[in-house]
Amino acid sequence: MVEVENRYVLAKTLVILGTDNWQIPKLVKPTHIARNISKGLASAKFLGPVTIEAVGKPLLDFVTQQLRSSGIRVTQVFSDTKLVLRMAIWALDTPDPANILLVAGDGDYQDIVDHLRTRGHNVMLAQIIRSSNLMLKITSKIIWEWGDLASGRGPLREEGNLHIREKYLRKYLGNRPKSQIAEAPSIRCELCYHLLPLPKKPEKLQCRCSYMIDLTSTTPLTPLTTLL
């Protein structure tokens, strides 16, 4: 069972559906999507008010109408920029810690996700098989399969998250010493706590705050904590 921090149980939840790479499961009616997503969130103990928005490429007219009739706001655009902007604006309008569930494919959303997390928001992922950004999968503590979420089921169990982590280690970190693999996939800057992805080879990293992290040193990385 996935553990949820108390401050997020009754908090507001924004669900962003990136429509560029997702499909509605065959056995799920578009008119049931909103209800099923709320059910899936409730099964994971997210019990606060839920807002659902679909952002991305234009959908078939009848699908758009059915999604809107179920309470989902649909915005049709041809760029990931609108999706990122919508998350940022919602977060500004929601200063208290809140939940954001991103249903997305291979777009580059890591910067906005990192920013939202530093502001205290709980950002989760519903992954689209063979499409969702691997780094997003690695840095998300709570993950759904999109088909499960659309059907009203709960998130992956801990062993499912570990499988994703192992896939990352095999693909990107296969030749690293165990001491560095233990710190994968990211480390925190000791000065500003910004998350930095570990490079494939030991090197000196400069954080956006200008603090230098020397990964070529033999000094253990114990002062730096991983996201996971």
TrEMBL record:
Gene3D superfamilies: 5'-nuclease. One of its GO terms (biological process) is regulation of gene expression. One of its GO terms (cellular component) is peroxisome. InterPro entries: Marf1, NYN. One of its GO terms (molecular function) is RNA nuclease activity. It comes from Arabidopsis lyrata subsp. lyrata (Lyre-leaved rock-cress). This is Predicted protein. Residues 19-126 form the NYN domain.
